[in-house]
Amino acid sequence: MFAFAYHRPSELADALAALAASEEAKPLAGGQTLIPTLKQRLASPSDLVDLSGVTALKGITLHDDALVIGAMARHVEVATSPVVVAHLPALAALAGLIGDPAVRNRGTLGGSIANNDPSADYPAACLALAATIVTDRRELLAAAFFTGLFETALQPGEIVTAVRFPLGGEGTYEKYPNPASRYAMAGVFVWRGGDEIRVAVTGASQGGVFRWAEAEAALAAEFSPAALDGLKPEADDMIADIHGSGAYRAQLVAVMARRAVARLAAAR
Description:
The chain is an alpha+beta fold. Helix content is 34%, strand content 24%.
């Protein structure tokens, strides 16, 4: 690691002030991406602002027909929260699939979506559930928040403070994990409420998380796994690496989508 100044404020205002004091300062949430990056000397922030002591960034509550989860809520807390399990069981189940126990006990919701790794799970839930990302400055719909591979609409010094998930409808998440890392090689979150269908895909696309419009249209006409027969994302748009080709990931997306639809259809 390179040398840096370490801050652990207890108030949000103090955390924001520490971040604003230097253009090279970085916020530290769960550290599941940032700490390995620092160890490999791939980043050299002047300051690390540890957000783990900021109480205002924690908590899971119900408010105005929405589930509000603080940015510093750890994956294990989302997975086991009675409130999440009761009101958004698909989100709790998704959180329980993230990484391994060590990752789930350290990683946070806010850190995950702010990093916007193309293989992260939460972005799919945010898109499919039409979540609102709350920052210290504004509120953004998930569709406007995720802007590309490892990119979000966050401005310098701006941090995620909470995520607001509207209640209603029903959803489920199906994921094919990398056997080693448990990152999603393809993860599909399907949600339906009334006549509206949302299908969000993570882990597969070169552009990061996305809504699969073709699948949504097919399912709006007939909500069944058979409605997706023959549908796949474009292989050329998918990630191709040592773990799988673009065609392989496109096929995984199709399979995970059919599984998610089958599970929702069976629950009716």
